[in-house]
Amino acid sequence: MIARRALLAAAAVAVLAGVAPFLPAYPLTLLTQALIVGILAMSLDVLLGYTGLTSLGHAAYFGVGAYAVAIMATEKQAGLIPCLAVGVLLAAATAAIFGLLAIRATGTYFLMITLALGMVIWGLAFRWVSLTKGDNGIAGVPRPSLGPLELSGPLPFFYFCLVATAVAWALMGLLVVSPFGLGLRGIRGSESRMLALGYNVWLHKYTAFVISGLFAGFGGTLWAYYNGFVSPNDVQLVTSVETLLMVALGGSGTLIGPAIGAGVIVFLKNFVSVYTKRWLLILGAVYIGVILYAPTGIVGALRGRRR
Amino acid sequence: MAPAEAVAHAALRLDAVSRAFGGLQAVDAVSLTVRPGERRALIGPNGAGKTTLFNLIAGALPLTSGRISLFGHDVTGTPAHRRAALGLARTFQITNLFPDLTVLENCLLAVQAQTPARFAMLRPVSQYSALRERAQATLASLALEGLGDAVVRNLSHGEQRQLEIALALAGRPRVLLLDEPTAGLSPAESRLMATLLRELHPAITVLMIEHDMDIALELSEMVTVLHYGRVIADGPREQVKADPQVKEIYLGA
């Protein structure tokens, strides 16, 4: 089953890579955006779908990664690798600190604490003007180059993001089928049984939280390059909520589902908003439809049918 | 395992263990010594505090006062997962499994719990053949072979009760707490369960809560009777069976 999913993913990557050169600029840009946000959605799924922890503050780690890159790339003219490394590590470090506060709680309380901690990061982005330029955001983040490879054009940057997303998917995919990942699914099923079996449930959850934050931060680093601009809007609650919607829409606990959900929402948001200002209404209708007819999400429903 | 140590210490020792819930003294100064390899039944009417006592021994609840030791180690303040690492395993009165996972995955979780593999992240669990073989052997010992790929939610109640025991045994425990292994089983299923329990390795120390008197007395040479949180009788089964107070409050004879 793992081999077949890897094969399917490889085929999807090949199709995307093959189609990309023939796409007009705008859809290509949206596809790039979907890939980046897909990493964020998958990182949330590690917590939500596999561990059973509903985080409502994932924009925080995404934002820390994005701001780290924006600051380093504009003020220090740092290259791609140092920017990525610092962004990802800072996001993981933020998750490591926030996790200490959040993992003690469960259910709604966990959700509220992650929300509050997310707002802390938003507050910092908004108020720490000397570092973040506050409400104005940081503009002019240059597209990076990887050694001799110039990633500034839409197509090379798309390929870069495609590879990055594939790598992130593969790593998280391994994580969720590993013994550690099985432990996470056990925690979602029954914490009391996990404790009785001898698992340090707190440590398992905490580790998952930090790893999830790390990948969310990875998505954020790419976002800074993609947009060329980082502002408190990227860190706000709406971003966290939208990510949660992507996971639910695509199918939590399927990993690839949230990435697909991210794609659906990105395209819906951008295409529908051309025709109507009330795109949220359409999104709401789609969401209600999924809840009613495919409560396990798009991928969940497909897998359920096959079974 | 060092045999000399195991003989020198009781497998499980409780000293005046108490637990109060507000004004209710659920477990009241219970002292108990279980020798290594002993099979002991813990009986008493509903509400006697048996499951609360199990939760105290397993570390799921903190004590109000008293002391618990496992093979001579004081574990009074030790968290539940560390007690499991010291060789303590338990089953639950109300079936407590991983309903969305397969039978094999349930058992793998139990097997890997005591190994460093539980933190391995970069290899699929399916590639750990040693773990899988141990899990399959455990399932076979509880007549669950052939059900490995079934999702636990779809098992019969009897099969779920057998898996309860399998999860506890998979970690190769030295002390096993069985909380009503035959709860909700049909007479035929109970008999199968009794047969499976009789085949437990003789080195495993077993403390069992059981409402089915025939099974409890058949499987245990020692019996402790709990009533309103207190031990009212404790000793070999014949002696406890003959105890007039026990007859009056519990056996109803």
* Side-by-side strand order of the widest sheet of chain A: 1-4
Helix percentage of chain A: over 70%
pLDDT < 50 stretches of chain A: none
- CA-based gyration radius of chain B: 18 Å
**Helix and strand composition category of chain A:** mainly alpha
Q: What's the count of strands of chain B? A: 10
Q: State the separation between the terminal residues of chain A, measured CA to CA.
A: 12 Å
Count of alpha and pi helical runs of chain B: 10
Describe the structure.
The complex is a heterodimer of chains A (307) and B (253). By secondary structure, chain A is mainly alpha-helical. Chain A has a domain at 32-236. Chain A contains 14 helices and four strands. In chain A, the strands form two sheets. A two-stranded antiparallel ribbon of chain A has the order 1-4. The longest helix of chain A has 27 residues, at 25-51. The two termini of chain A are 12 Å apart. With 253 residues, chain B is an alpha/beta fold. Chain B has two domains: 1-87 and 173-253, P-loop containing nucleotide triphosphate hydrolases (Rossmann fold, 3-Layer(aba) Sandwich), CATH 3.40.50.300; 98-171, no CATH class. In chain B, 36% of the residues lie in helices and 24% in strands. In chain B, the strands form two sheets. Chain B has a six-stranded mixed β-sheet with strand order 6-7-8-3-9-10, with helices on both faces. A four-stranded antiparallel β-sheet of chain B has the order 2-1-4-5, covered by helices on one side. In chain B, helix 7 links the parallel strand 7 (175-179) and strand 8. Chain B is globular, with a radius of gyration of 18 Å. In chain B, 47% of the residues are buried. Mean pLDDT of chain B is 91; it is low at 1-7. The chains are: A mainly alpha (307), B alpha/beta (253). Chains A and B meet through helix 7, helix 8 and helix 9 of A and helix 3 and helix 4 of B.
